[in-house]
Amino acid sequence: MNESGRLIVISGPSGAGKSTVVGKAIEGRHDVCFSTSVTTRAPRPGEVDGREYFFIDRERFREMVERDELLEHADYVSNSYGTPRAFVEKKLAEGMNVLLDIEVQGARQVHEKMPGAVTIFIAPPSLEVLERRLRGRGTDTEEAIAGRLERARQEFREADFYDYLIVNDNLERSAHALCAIIDAAQWRFSDRAEWLKNQ
Prior knowledge:
Number of domains: 1
Strand order of the largest sheet: 2-7-1-8-9
Strand content: 15-25%
Largest sheet: 5 strands, parallel
Mean pLDDT: 93
Order of helices and strands: EHEEEHEEHEHEHHEHH
Radius of gyration: 18 Å
CATH superfamily: P-loop containing nucleotide triphosphate hydrolases
Number of helices: 8
Number of strands: 9
Structural class: alpha/beta
Oligomer: single chain
């Protein structure tokens, strides 16, 4: 069988430990890559077009939205960001599993456009633990922490369409669970039914 990759969509509140879990899970794996987003913001020093982001102007971004060339898109702090469909489809065709680390609203857009995507929500053990983690960073104001906690509550309410929920109370176990989900996605019957018909 010619194996194509799977689109893996990961979401979770700031402070849930998504990046740490994902980093641990894909350590040493050569079948997983991150999607590269497009953005209208200017490159920061050291950033390379096509590596951190594809840097485009607002007009081109509008064109991509109108032509349905983005799997999802959103605005943050007066700049636009989106996931280019062509990049993702090319990597999937090459057999790579493509990871998207995006917010719940973006994940819902992807879920609607690519129902075969595997969606995973990574949550902290509790909102109390999340608050401790956010305070432990020492980088946010009280106002910012309150905003992040409120946003987390909202994401919990909106995350009713995900396929999997990983409660990150143990890094090793959470990373193992994510690996297992990525591996299992390769064997879904719905993606392989054609093989049976051809026998």
